[in-house]
Structure formats: structure tokens, C-alpha cells
Amino acid sequence: MRNHLKKAGLALAVGTAMGLSTGASAAVEVYNQDGTSFSVDGYFNAFYVNRDDKINDVRNSDVKMGFLPNTIGFNFSREVGDLTLGGRSSFWSTINDSLQSPTDTAIDVRQLYATVDGSFGQILIGKDFGLYARSNIFLDEILMGFGSPGAPTGVSFGNIRAGYPYPNPSAQITYRSPDLGGLKVAAGILEPANTTPGAQSEQSAPRFEAEITYGADLGGVSLTGWLNGRYQSSENATTSIDSTGLGYGVRAAMAGLSLTASGFTSKGDVPVLITDQALASEEDADGYLVQGGYTLGANRFVISYGETDSDQGDFQTENSSVALFHDINEYFKVVAEYNMFEQTTKSTDAKTVDADTLALGAIVTF
């Protein structure tokens, strides 16, 4: 039976962080009979976080979740003739609001989609992560770690705004090709952002996103490369904003050692996430992320450095992390990470964030 379930977004994200193997986060199969299956997967984590805020001269201790929220997902698959129909719904929740909203934990649905698989490839309809910057984040070595500071009651930001933007979940219709000798192509239309609110505001075409990935094994070296992009336009009676983005990267792995380099360049957006937000002009942004990782037995050592320079957002950032991931067993992992993050306002050269963070966490998956 074609196992569509392992194509789920969370399984991909967790799998890549655990060594590029979706099998590391296999869902619990609840039902599998007569060509129909149903499964559930989960990801739970908590970190002790000690942060030295050098701008405000304060040090705080917290218990938070990491870069990936706590998540539970439901997957189904059904064979109908030559087609396989599938779907996923995942619920992502924070534990960081336990004192601000004691009994009202925020829950958001980042994936709610159906798929149709056949010899032609796959068509996805619904809500899922975008294609632009998708591999940049899913192949981040500290995906299961903590990373840079984020919203007070939300997730930390990992390397978002310090190496890559967020491929925020969007309503979409996306096509994915079959595996063509290691080459895979995805392209889709997504809900466009209103970046020109006001009189006669319109987005006459959808947002277009695409990604090309290629994987090969050359003499024992596993290579993965990717190129992704985005284009959309928004206009009102006085302003027109074209938003474009190009992401890219390559990863090489051999005998426990991996080296990853990725980057992006964009115009007409703030390189954090794309939303309905008024922009007065089309300004540039770019960034990059370089990482190294080494696996020794049950231990994974990671070093990471990233930067983003944004005229549109009027900021410059740099983010450095060192981390140790230790597998207690296949489903239980502990993490120790030290992160150093700085952000400067470009127009004034004033430093707005200078924070060093120690994060000690535990992760359970099923």
C-alpha cells in the first residue's frame, strides 16, 4: 500500500531533524484494512530556558517549548482504483501561555489538507506550509532545538529572521511530481497577501510558489540541493507592490558528518513571514545560514550561524547556536543548546536585541 502518511508535514520536519529519516517519527497506526488506513502522530517538548537580556540588563528563567510547538496530527489514506486519497489535520499548541491564559492554551491548525496521489504525482488541496523557504527550514539542524528569541507566549524563532523566512501555512492548491531519478518538482497557487490595503485594493492573481529538490548519492556522500521561489502582486488606487523571493541550499552528509548551507533573497516583503501588511515600497532583503553536524553514537553535535539583512523590515540580525541532541531511545530525546542572538535597526544603527540563551529540553515523539 502506498504510504502517504509519511508525507505529512510534521513527519517531514521531525524526520529531517532526526537525521533525514521520516521513519524516525512514524505515526501510530490505528486502522489499516481494505485499502484504508488511519494513524496518529505526536510531538511533545519542554525546555528550561535561562536568558541573559543584555539590552535591558535582566536575566530570566522560564519553562517553554522549543522551536517546534507541541503537536498532534491525524492522517488518513484510502486506495480508490488507481488513486490514493489522503489527508492530514494537525493541531499545534503552545505551553508558553500557561500564566497569561491559564486554562485557555492557544491552538492553531497549520495543516488541514487532502491529497490525491497517482502515477502523475500528487495534488494537495487545503492548508499546508508554503513552498518558498520550505526546505530551508525543514533541513535546519536546530529544528528540534530552541534558537533565537520569539514571541513572549509563542514559539522561539529558531533561525527565522536570522537565515530564512517562515514558509507560513497558507490555503493552496499544489502539484508535486513523482520522483524523477532524485529530482522532484512542486508548484502551486496560494492565497495572496494584501500588502496594499486601502481604496480599490486588489490581488488579481494568486500567489505563486514552487520548489525543485534533488538528491543523489555520490561515492558515499549523500547530497541534497534545493531551489524555491515565490511571486505575488498587490495593488490599490495609489500603490503597487510586487513581492518576490528566491531560496536555495545544499546539504552534504557522509559517515555521520553533515554540512549545510542555505540562503535567500527577496523584495517587497519583511523576511519573517508573509501576511496582510501594508508596505509603502519594494525593498530588498537577503540572508544565509551555515551549519555543521556530527553524529557519534546516540549523540548529535550541531553548530549553526545565520544572518539576515532587511531594508524592508529595517533590521540586521545574526544568530549563533551550538547544540547537543542525545537519543535516549527512538522516541525520547534530550537537548542542550546555547544561543546568541543580536538584532540592530539599520536606519539608526541601534542594537535592539542582544540576548544569550541556555535551553535544556526533552522531546517525546510517537
What does this 3D model show about the protein?
- One of its GO terms (cellular component) is cell outer membrane.
- Its main location: membrane.
- The structure is a single chain.
- This protein has 366 residues and is mainly beta.
- It has one domain (4-365): Porin, CATH 2.40.160.10.
- The protein has helices spanning 9-17, 134-138; strands at 28-33, 36-53, 58-64, 70-80, 83-93, 107-118, 121-128, 170-176, 183-190, 207-218, 221-235, 240-254, 257-267, 284-296, 299-310, 315-329, 332-345, 350-365.
- The chain has a 16-stranded antiparallel β-barrel.
- It is globular, with a radius of gyration of 20 Å.
Q: What are its keywords?
A:
single chain; 366 residues; mainly beta; 2 helices; 58% strand
Shape: globular
Number of structural units classed as domains? 1
Largest sheet: 16 strands, antiparallel, barrel
Strand content: over 45%
The number of helical segments is: 2
Kindly name the structural category.
mainly beta
* CATH architecture title: Beta Barrel
Number of strands: 18
Q: What is the top-level CATH class?
A: Mainly Beta
What number is the mean pLDDT? 91
- List unreliable stretches of 5+ residues: 1-25
Order of helices and strands: HEEEEEEEHEEEEEEEEEEE
Strand arrangement, major sheet: 2-4-5-6-7-8-9-10-11-12-13-14-15-16-17-18
Radius of gyration: 20 Å
CATH topology: Porin
CATH superfamily: Porin
- Cα(first) to Cα(last) distance is 21 Å
Measured as a percent range, the helix fraction is: under 10%
Topology of this structure?
Blueprint: H1 9-17, E1 28-33, E2 36-53, E3 58-64, E4 70-80, E5 83-93, E6 107-118, E7 121-128, H2 134-138, E8 170-176, E9 183-190, E10 207-218, E11 221-235, E12 240-254, E13 257-267, E14 284-296, E15 299-310, E16 315-329, E17 332-345, E18 350-365
Antiparallel strand pairs: 1-2, 2-3, 2-4, 2-18, 4-5, 5-6, 6-7, 7-8, 8-9, 9-10, 10-11, 11-12, 12-13, 13-14, 14-15, 15-16, 16-17, 17-18
